[in-house]
Amino acid sequence: MNKSNPKANSAKSRRSFLNAVRLERDSVKRFDEYPFCVPAIKHLQRLEFHPAVTFFIGENGSGKSTLLEAIAVKLGFNAEGGGKNFNFATRETHSNLHEFIRLERGFCHPTDHYFLRAESFYNLATQIEDLGVEYGYGKKSLHHQSHGEAFLSLLTNRLQGDGVYLFDEPEAALSPQRQLSVLTLLHRLVYHQSQLVIATHSPILLAYPNARIYQFSTDGIAEVQYTETEHYHVTRDFLNRHERMLEILLAAEAEDLKANERNP
What we know:
With 264 residues, the protein is an alpha/beta fold. The chain is 33% helix and 18% strand. It folds into two domains: 13-228, Rossmann fold (3-Layer(aba) Sandwich), CATH 3.40.50; 229-264.
C-alpha cells in the first residue's frame, strides 16, 4: 500500500467524477406520492458531492438510501448492487426516482465502479458465485465466509481505486474493529483518486476527516459537521454515562411494561 497522503481528501487538490445531483422538479407530477412525499426528497433541489467522501445520514425512512439507490441506477448500476456488468433482480423494489434526477458529472471518467448495499449483499454474493468470478473477490467464496468477513473481503479485494463507489450501510455486517479497518480502506481509495458516496448510521465511519455530511430529516437535507450529528452525541453521551443512561432507559421501559399489564 502506498503511504497515506494527509491531503488526499482535500477538495482543492482533487478532481471530481460527480459534482452534484439535481431533482428535475418540473417533471414530478405529484409530490404526495412515494418517493417524492419523503420530506428529504420533496425538498431536494441540488446536492453537491465532496470530491472525496460524501455521507448521507438520517433516521430509517428518511430517504438517504432511496436517493443513493437512485444515483446508483442513474449511473448504470444494478439496483441490488455490484459492478456495472451485473444485471440481476431478486425482486423489483426500487423506486422510479432515478428517472427524475440529473447527475452533474466532472470532466474526468472513473476506471472503476461499484455499488454495495448491505440489505442485498447475500443476493450479490450468490450472483458473483454463479458468474464464477468469486476468486476475484478474495481467495474464498463469499458464501464460505461469515457475513462480516465476506463484506470486508469484497471491499478489500474488488475495489481498485480511481473509481466511483456507492455504499449503503456498509457497517451493517461489521464489528467496531472491522469498521475501523474500513476507515483505512476509505483512505486508501481516496488516496487513489476515488470518490465515495456512503449512506450510514456508523459514528465510526462518519469520523473520516474532511468528508461532507448531509443530514436527511423532515425538514429536508442539510449539511452538518461531524460533532453536530446525533450519531456523535448519542454515542459520546452513552459511552461517557452508560450506567446512568441505562438506568433511565430501563426504568422507563419498566414503567411502560407495568402500564400495559394494568391496561391490557
